[in-house]
Input
Amino acid sequence: MTRFLQGSEQALSRAYQLALLDLDGVVYRGKNPIEHAADSIRAAERIGMTVEYTTNNSSRFQHVVAEQLRGFALDVEPWQIITSAVVAARMVARHVDEGSDVLVLGAEHLREEVRKAGLHIVEGAQDDPQAVIQGWYPDLAWHELAEASFAVERGATYFVTNRDLTIPRELGIAPGCGSLIQAVIAATGVEPVASAGKPESAMYDEARLLAARDGSDPVAKRACLAIGDRLDTDIEAGNRGGYDSLAVLTGVTNPHELMSAPAHLRPTYIVPDLRGLNEAQPEPLRNDDGSWSCGATDRGAAEATVGAARAWIEDGALHVSDSSDINALRAACCLAWEYADCGEDIADITLPDCAVGGADPQ
Output
């Protein structure tokens, strides 16, 4: 059964208690803040929403990220930054005995988190570590990959902080942690038993636990909203873990990718930017003629919703009533998903160039 976009009569910041917010492409691009993001986060917090920031980056200390966000006039404490290093260390600690020896390939942030988790760091396979944890950092050397391979071959349990194949750098796209772990996998034939980063849902699960401060109970999943700009990490992690999700169009994902998304990459809501966090969300509706509408309330029995944006398929193309209207994109996504889930190939029809949010049409 197709899972379509949902609606919310309340602003999302009122409908959900905890925001699990991605950083790059949502709050900032590199060193630069994304327009409307900080203002929208502050508005959500004034309403009472708790915000935690989730990132696959395992090399930056929490206090460093928090300081960057404070530079955008956000009130952020280091505990609100959930890095893959934090999640990975807690994950390893649950799999091995307290005080176990662990070989760490990663930046000092990852090593610090492993120590905080009550584990003992060793420097080579000759120390017979019970586990190996590999993260991304720019100074990773061949001999470290070799030591990890030797340890895994001897029976150490293999963990990684994330499986991102690429990482954006100043000069372009570089190999990410997922590319570097392939060296160990190829040498040993052993796959990591777990990954801390998105698209696994462990990061969101840990964030819920870490937000439960002063002995309070973790926020229920149904009250959490995963927010991100990437379908294949942020949104997929939400779907894997049973979290509702919000896709923003200020980063990687564009309208064509949304319309073409397979079921496991489809978000619960779509907004142009983070201002949508503090807005109610109209629910797209299917019309009797097979078209979809979104954005108005009056609806006739056999007519399209009055005043709403529309999407329909005609002459081998998917059409929208207004390519600059986010509601038209929402309707188009539901129509495209229904079309694909009925066994049709979405590549066989022409998709509209919707110019909404910060993403450019393809």
About this structure: Residues 285-348 form one domain. DSSP finds eleven helices and 19 strands in the chain. Residues 236 and 264 are 6 Å apart (CA to CA). The longest helix spans residues 326-341.
